[in-house]
Amino acid sequence: MSTRNQVLKLYKMLLRESEKFESYNFRSYAVRRVKDAFRENQNLGNGDALKEKISEGHKNLEIIKRQVLISQMYKTDRLIIENMSRN
């Protein structure tokens, strides 16, 4: 698999997993942070720095998965903004 495809696949997985947060604030922060991180590093060449960032992305994916699971275990009441946006 080419590096470009690896990066795109990682990006999609991070966004999908970030959308699973129960809390609106955590969900919007995670999605924004993923987009910002990829935008910030879009000009990395095909080198060791890129491989390091891909590895870091996979570690962050595991962290997000863990945090999503925790957020699903300990749910809180929905915010007013969530009720408006989901209807």
From TrEMBL:
This is Complex 1 LYR protein domain-containing protein. Pfam families: Complex1_LYR (PF05347). Belongs to the complex I LYR family. One of its GO terms (biological process) is iron-sulfur cluster assembly. InterPro entries: Complex1_LYR_dom, Complex1_LYR_LYRM4, ISC_assembly_LYR. It comes from Rhynchophorus ferrugineus. One of its GO terms (cellular component) is mitochondrion. PANTHER family: LYR MOTIF-CONTAINING PROTEIN 4, PROTEIN C6ORF149. Residues 6-62 form the Complex 1 LYR protein domain.
